[in-house]
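Let's practice the habit of predicting before peeking. Look at the sequence and jot down your guess about where helices and strands might fall. Then scroll down.
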Amino acid sequence: MGSTEILRQSDRECGLSWCFVQLKVLPSPALDLTIGRLRRQLAGQRHNARRTNMNKSDYWNREEFEGLTSLSAALRTESCLEQLAAYCDLREKGLRREALTRLNAFIEQMRCVAVPDQRALAVHVLESHWRFPQAYRFLAVPLRNDFLERVLKEWRAADAKNPVPLRYLALLCRDGDLLEEALRRNPQDDHVRATLAGDFIDMVDYATHHLAEGEFIGDEDEAFAALAKADSLLSGAVEPSSVRALRHEVDELAGLLADWKQYREAPEGTFPEWCLAQNRDHHWRSTVYYDGGAD
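Done guessing? Here is the structure:
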């Protein structure tokens, strides 16, 4: 059988989805990295290890476990979130089934809480999670669908002019239309601005992730346009230092696209060979292939 690109399981706890593993040298972590981008940065550390009988200080996913511990402490500042904090503790211990039992109990508990309190708690949960994005599997599907999205959607429907539920729903769902609307309402919101710019950067990143093999995915003009949108968004940041890492990615991708365009006009050898001859320094991804084992 033919070769297949290695896949990894994503963080979706219910209704599993899959995405490609691509290894890339990335800039140092910064606070402006969104949760999704941090997952990609940590992707190279994920393997089929198991937690049992392993020294936690050397464990492959130590960052996530430390994030869950910190997140648990942040949630416990609200007594109504004790069940959710316990969910984090159990996830940190690797007890997924017990953790989901606690999570379901929390969700049912929230249905009995007054609506204004549900709204305040939903905001507190999201703000706490964004402080510790390395706990990337915290937002299990039941938590997203049956508490956070439910509360925010109902809040937005009941108070359409209120920018708060729009903002948090846009950031939670990473919905482009909602993010753009939230940014129109508050152009000074650098978190929304960075998230929207990051999504455009991800489009270009995906389109270029096979350039080492001479393959561009999608339309080149669309990639240039997406990168221009990201650049424009970042240029409008109130605090430029908060989007420094994203700005670095835009600059790197802009150079890569420019070199690809020039190479396509007069290709000589492979694209990496051409870049080397032109003294262009790009960080090439390593795409790993394996034989499925069937004859």
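How did you do? The beta strands are 3-5, 7-9, 18-20, 289-291.
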